[in-house]
Design brief:
single chain, 242 residues, mainly alpha, 3-stranded parallel beta sheet, globular
């Protein structure tokens, strides 16, 4: 968005970029940028908090009234109010310590875990009236089966029309992450993004499986697969030196 702002301004369209990574905004130097200290993927702050999101939007639009120079970067003054941990929240499942290690056993554990989350996911969809699962067009169970197949070894069959197997794996992983995180919201709890991330990446078979799939893709010779590997696990959740 910061880079795109230059093209908009050249056409006479005033712009404000909302930047989640301040150094990136400093390097691309958009005419105006509002840096927000929120989690990646949440440029307006916590989901469903209309009052807080309106504050962010008004702060960004307010920058259009000021033109002190070629570049203006301001910091939004408040953090995401949902970043405080919810002590009442309980995760819907947790992987047992010392769980499956080899691909076939982990595949079975992953399938069982995701099947066990189905009821919580359905409850969450009913409570919130929406879901972000659906990038692949596959049912969550089919996504689980496809990820499990990859854990047993690279597959040449894609369950998604006009999509290569490795690209299908990328979008399947996104659907599975959304499925698990939405299941974790069932019951009206308000866990922070850190709580959710710690649960997903440290306590679930899904988190373990995605790390394993990333290593599997990086170990191969397919450059497209290596590019997809970068999307399976966020950089902040990688072991040092990965």
């Amino acid at each position: 968005m910061s880079a795109l702002a230059h093209y908009l301004e050249e056409e006479g369209i005033a712009s404000v970029a909302i930047a989640l990574i301040r150094p990136q905004a400093e390097n691309t130097r958009p005419p105006r940028a509002l840096w927000v200290p929120f989690e990646l993927g949440r440029p307006l702050g916590p989901p469903s908090d209309k009052v807080f999101q309106r504050r962010v939007i008004l702060a960004a639009l307010g920058m259009l009234e000021r033109s002190p120079g070629p570049v203006l970067i301001e910091d939004f003054p408040a953090d995401d109010p949902r970043e405080a941990a919810d002590p009442a929240w309980q995760s819907p499942s947790a992987r047992l310590e010392g769980g499956a290690a080899d691909g076939s056993a982990l595949a079975a554990e992953l399938t069982a875990e995701l099947h066990g989350l189905a009821r919580a996911y359905a409850q969450s969809c009913t409570e919130r009236g929406r879901s972000t699962v659906g990038l692949t067009g596959l049912a969550p169970a089919a996504c689980a089966d496809y990820a499990a197949a990859w854990l047993r070894g690279p597959t040449s069959a894609s369950p998604v029309m006009d999509m290569s197997p490795v690209l299908a794996l990328r979008f399947v992983s996104d659907d599975l992450k959304a499925f698990a995180l939405e299941a974790a919201l069932a019951g009206g709890g308000k866990p922070s993004s850190r709580q959710l991330g710690d649960w997903l990446w440290n306590q679930t078979a899904l988190g373990t499986a995605l790390h394993a799939l990333r290593r599997q893709l990086l170990a191969g010779d397919d450059e497209r697969a290596k590019a997809v590997a970068a999307f399976l696990v966020p950089a902040l959740r990688l072991p040092p030196g990965s």
